């Protein structure tokens, strides 16, 4: 009887969904890895190159495949939808998720190519909205000094997405400084995930 009461009182906190966005070589993948280790979180990456769609995207990014801007945009979005149910289930089970890129960069990259922004946002509408998003940024000239920069098709894009729980981080700071800044922003949310609303892109309550 006592066990049943305790179980009822102890509400399972849902997991926190954290997204890291940034230009190539901004260090977001390093931060995503460190953060997922620290929080014992599941790390997901977009594009997810392990799926059939991901392989096509990977070919495109390496310059091996010609595709219209519209087609590749829809493929990137479909690649995110492939993980949607799995992400939702894990969050509901209390697993924190760290996403290395998400829909925000998708919209920014494609809009920078000249596609209408509302058109770019439409296929991602309904995906789970991250609880908190970090955008690692620095002048392109600085990032391009880092090895391997610009090997793939997108190397230069402006990213200006304004919304709550969206934090810009100076990518030129040290790995430890950036990690500390990120942890600082999420610590309060981690303690109170049961109070957070699960929202959908773009901003609707789930
Ligand atoms: P990464 O694996 O993080 O290096 O990302 C590969 C590239 O794909 C990167 O230059 C950004 C781009 N990208 C990621 N998502 C999208 C998207 O949804 N749409 C477009 N057009 N580009 C994207």
UniProtKB/TrEMBL annotation:
It comes from the Eukaryota. The keyword Kinase applies. Its EC number is 2.7.4.9. InterPro entries: Thymidylate_kin-like_dom, Thymidylate_kin_CS, Thymidylate_kinase. Pfam families: Thymidylate_kin (PF02223). GO terms for molecular function: ATP binding; dTMP kinase activity; nucleoside diphosphate kinase activity. One of its GO terms (biological process) is dTTP biosynthetic process. PANTHER family: THYMIDYLATE KINASE (PTHR10344). HAMAP family: Thymidylate_kinase. This is Thymidylate kinase. The lineage of its organism: Eukaryota, Sar, Alveolata, Ciliophora, Intramacronucleata.
């Amino acid at each position: 009887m006592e066990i049943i009461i305790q179980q009822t009182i102890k509400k399972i906190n849902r997991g926190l969904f954290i997204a890291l966005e940034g230009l190539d070589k901004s260090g977001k993948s390093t931060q995503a890895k460190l953060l997922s280790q620290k929080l014992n979180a599941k790390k997901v990456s977009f594009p997810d190159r392990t799926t059939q769609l991901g392989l096509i995207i990977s070919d495109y990014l390496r310059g091996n495949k010609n595709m219209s801007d519209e087609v590749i945009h829809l493929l990137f979005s479909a690649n995110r939808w492939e993980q949607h149910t799995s992400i939702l289930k894990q969050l509901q089970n209390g697993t924190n998720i760290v996403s290395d890129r998400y829909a925000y960069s998708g919209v920014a990259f494609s809009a920078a190519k000249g596609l209408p922004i509302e058109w770019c946002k439409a296929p991602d509408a309904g995906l789970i909205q991250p609880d908190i998003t970090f955008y690692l940024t620095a002048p392109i000239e600085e990032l391009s000094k880092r090895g391997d920069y610009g090997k793939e098709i997108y190397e230069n894009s402006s990213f200006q997405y304004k919304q709550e729980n969206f934090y810009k981080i100076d990518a030129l700071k040290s790995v430890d400084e950036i990690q500390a800044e990120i942890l600082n922003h999420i610590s309060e949310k981690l303690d109170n995930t049961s109070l957070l609303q699960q929202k959908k892109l773009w901003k609707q309550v789930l």
